[in-house]
Amino acid sequence: MSDCIFCKIAHGEIPAEVVYETDKIIAFNDLHPVAPVHVLIIPKAHLADMNELASSDQRAELMEEVLQATQALCKLYHTRSFNLINNCGQEAGQSVFHLHFHFISGVDLTQKIAAAAQA
Ligand code: AMP
Ligand code: ZN
User: Fold this and answer.
1) How far is the centre of ligand 1, averaged over its atoms, from the C-alpha of 30 (Å)?
2) Alpha carbon of 3 to ligand 1 centroid (Å)
3) Distance CA 23, CA 40 (A)
4) 0.85 cut: is pTM over it?
5) Whether pLDDT at 82 is above 90
6) What share of the chain is helix, strand, coil (3-state, %, to 5)?
7) 100: number of CA atoms within 13 Å, CB side?
8) Catalytic residue set
9) Cβ neighbours of residue 5 under 8 Å, at least 6 residues apart?
10) What lines the ligand 1 site, CB under 6 Å?
11) 5: left (phi over 0), alpha (psi -120 to 50) or beta
12) Across residues 15-34, what is the average pLDDT?
């Protein structure tokens, strides 16, 4: 998609701090990190969200790639602990409509979620 910011990153048209890449996916640092490690894992081909992934004949291959990316990032950042988050749809907080998974490590999100639930 010509006006999609993550397509532009995937095609090298705008800069990003790329930390992992294969033929099918690319992972780069989030512009506004919420944790010491906050990487976005995206397919290079445009899919708007998880619903489009679910309808795609690439779904199994892409999810396998995402799994492999998590393991590569674990090695890169010397950890086995992370949150993998997908916001699907505007009401769920999605703001960029090119499928992406937030790989977040270095903070205990469960504490934050528990605190938010009690507030
Ligand atoms: P979401 O709200 O789940 O759609 O997440 C979108 C994420 O993309 C946010 O965490 C933004 O900080 C991040 N983001 C937006 N533009 C860029 C960019 N040019 N490079 C890296 N991250 C970005
Ligand atoms: Zn896109």
Assistant:
1) 6
2) 15
3) 16
4) yes
5) yes
6) 35, 20, 45
7) 24
8) 100
9) 14, 96, 98
10) 5, 16, 30-32, 40, 87, 93-96
11) alpha
12) 98
